[in-house]
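U., I forgot to send this yesterday:
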Amino acid sequence: LSPGAKMGCFTFIKVMMILFNLAIFLSGGTLLGVGIWVKVDGESFVDIFGTLSSSVLQVVNVSYVLIVIGSILLVIGFLGCYGAQKESKCLLMMFFSVVLIIFIAEIAVAVVALVYTGLAETLLSALVTPVLKEKYGVDPTFTQIWNTTMTKVHCCGLNNYTDFNDSVWYEKHKTYPDPCFGAAPPLAHPHLCGRLLQGCFDQILEEIRTNAGVAGGVAAGIAALEIAAMAVSMYLYCRLDEK
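Result:
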């Protein structure tokens, strides 16, 4: 290519890099705002986004996840956008390094999730169940989220009704939450647990498996964008040496 064509190609890629990372920056700001909103008013989030959102809120503190992801996207977007605009090799290398670290971390998490699914389930149960025992019936937002999910998904607790044994709720009311009985009348004795609903964790896993194809496609798309972003940032980095 002639010097003019090379310069035109460089300028085009630079502009695309700026626009792409500006979109990332704005997306990060949006996620950060949503994360703060979920932290302040989780019930409205459940009302708007429905059962799946309440299911996710049970096992993951969505507000903190969104705040962290939003903050990371803000940093990435700033490094990529400002680094390309100012043609800063330092910022472009920082952008490349951050995206590479995230890419490697995503692969590691995917491998662990596939290979150690049972371990992940055990750890999740160990983390969520104590919180359920302590906060259900005490924290209004937490209680509302669980009630919404247990009612709409027709489930009880994370693993099963025994998650409420020795809980603050059971000690106070001497029975399990009403959603645990589905359409049946409340029962106060654990020996009659045959009429209680199954745990929510299996239901959530089933929802995830049902949408596994979509989730896999999204993950593959994100990975492709990350690879493309690293390739473009490295191209700009190397071309700056020739200018």
